[in-house]
Each structure stands twice: as C-alpha cells, then as structure tokens.
Amino acid sequence: MSAFAQPRVFAPVVTPFADDLTVDTDRLVAFCRWLTGQGAGLALFGTNSEANSLALAERRALLDRVVEAGIDPAQLLPGTGACALPEAIELTRHAQRAGCAGALMLPPFYYKGVSDDGLFGYYAEVIEAVGSADLRVLLYHIPQFTGVPISHALIERLIAAYPQTVVGIKDSSGDWANTEAMLRRFPGFAVFPASEALLTRALPLGAAGCISATANIQPHAIAALLRAATPEARALCDAKVSTIRLAVQAQPMIPALKRIVAHFANDPAWTRVRPPLTQMDAAQSAALIDQLVALGFSMPALDVANA
C-alpha cells in the first residue's frame, strides 16, 4: 500500500539552533518525537525548517540522527531539492537509502524562466541516478519563493515517464484554483495542500492530507480533522485549526513558529533563527501569544528541551 493512501499531516519541522547557530540536534530529535506522538509525519528540511540555510552535510547528518533516535523512516518526507544537481542526487539517494516514505523536491530555483524540458531533465537525472524502484518523489510547487513554477504539463510528463516514482506534489502556491485543478486532473496522485485551512475543500476531491507550517504547533488538531468521520465533525475541527492558522500566517512564519514553541515549551532557545532571518521583536511576540491564549490554544505535553 502507498505511504500516502490515507490522508496524513506532515510538519516541515522547525530547526532549533544553539548559541553558535549550529543545529541543536537534541532539541530537534525531542521535537520530532513530540510531533510524531501527536499524529504528524515529518517533512524535515522544508521551507519552515530553514532548509536552504542548512548545508548538505548538516541535512545528511540530521536525517541520520533522527533515524538513529528510533523514529520510523516511514514517518519521514525530507526535502531533497537543491540548485546543484549533484547535491539533489546525493540528498535524494540518502533519503531513499534511509527508508524514508518519500523525498520532497523543490525545483532548482536560481535560474528563472527555465523550460519544462529543463525541469524534466533535472528530475529525470535525479531519479535515474538514484536508480531505485523504492524511490518515491513528491514535487514541491512554491513559485512565490522559487520563481520556478511546476506546470501541470510537467507533472503529466513526469507521471507518464515515472509512474511508480513521481507520486505526489505539495502545492504551496496558495492558489486554490491550482490545487483544485491538480486534484481533478491527476486522480490517484498525492496532492498535499500547504494549509490545513484548505482541507475541507480538498479532502472530498481526494487530497492526500496537508504539509503545513502550522502542523508544527497544532499537529494533533490537524490529525483530528483528517480523521473526522462526518461533515459536522470535520467542520468543527476545521474552525479550530483554521483560526489558529490565520493568526500565525499573519506573522513572519518561521520566527513566529519558533516563538510559539519557545513559549509553550518554556524554552527560550527555540527562538533562534539563522541569518538572514531575525527573531520576532518583543511586542510582536507578546501580541501573538496573547492572541493564541485568548483562542484557547495549547501545545499538550510539549517537552522539547532534550532528546
């Protein structure tokens, strides 16, 4: 059975840093354990993981550390896209050999205006170089960051060439019309919206769940929405998760997520980000936390200071 046969929520896991801005692996592992315990899979090295501020060697070592800590690789969907083709191949091969559920792949994002032929060549080179029937690739469409959209024609071509390998996509465009069109055009293809606020529209069309930034802070609530057995139960869950999503996405997302984790874990170390990002200022932070508390938000059993 496909790892994406049932709707799932994946969190692009925020990355904790030590005073010297090296990755705090113990806090990372502890947070990964909390997320999986709350019903979420782990999209390590996503946008909100500050993945493009991490070196290739760091990403390899962190994936190894998470697996060595006993976290089931079937829960892992690491980001492996890179501008440099050899790095994308290395990261994707590493994820496949670790037994991950799949590899979430950005297109190469420096050169703009590249053709579908060029993008097809990039993905094909990675797939052929890894050379494993066990590899599962999910495309990552976030054109507002990459400047490199993944067209429906390219998706169709990749599915035709690699039907057992190219199995899904994360649509972070924020364009519901695009998400809906992919769901209708590619039945059986694992389409993950990037916001839980879209799930009540996406699930009836066959969405595979969501890969959402705010799954870092409300994984249990999103998992409950995915499990909801009736339209009424789904609507109730949707109201809760969408309200929190709207509050957080109004802020700089990565610093806000880290500030929320820091507050509810009572662990200020979580506020650190790598430059060029900056932390939320005190007034912004206090206002956001006050808003969440007023909404009755909490992060149950959060203890992520140590692995």
What is the CA-CA span between the terminal residues? 32 Å
The fourth-level CATH homologous superfamily is Aldolase class I
Which stretches are low in confidence, meaning pLDDT under 50 for 5 or more residues running?
A: none
Radius of gyration: 18 Å
State the secondary-structure class: alpha/beta
How many domains comprise the coordinates?
1
Mean pLDDT: 96
The amount of helix comes to 40-55%
Adjacency order of strands in the biggest sheet: 3-4-5-6
Specify the number of helices: 12
The ordered string of helix (H) and strand (E) elements is EHEHHEHEHHEHEHEHHHH
CATH-defined architecture:
Alpha-Beta Barrel
Largest sheet: 4 strands, parallel
Query: In CATH terms, what is the fold-level topology?
Result: TIM Barrel
Apparent shape: globular
Q: Would you report the number of β strands? A: 7
Could you name the CATH class? Alpha Beta
Strand content: 5-15%
Organism: Paraburkholderia saeva
Active site: 140 (proton donor/acceptor), 170 (schiff-base intermediate with substrate)
EC number: 4.1.2.51
Protein name: 2-dehydro-3-deoxy-D-gluconate aldolase YagE
Describe it for me?
This protein is 44% helix and 9% strand. The protein is of the alpha/beta class and 307 residues long. It has one domain (8-222): Aldolase class I (TIM Barrel), CATH 3.20.20. The strands form 2 sheets. A 4-stranded parallel beta sheet has the order 3-4-5-6. The longest helix has 19 residues, at 231-249. Its EC number is 4.1.2.51. Belongs to the DapA family. GO terms for molecular function: 2-dehydro-3-deoxy-D-gluconate aldolase activity; 4-hydroxy-tetrahydrodipicolinate synthase activity. InterPro entries: Aldolase_TIM, DapA-like.
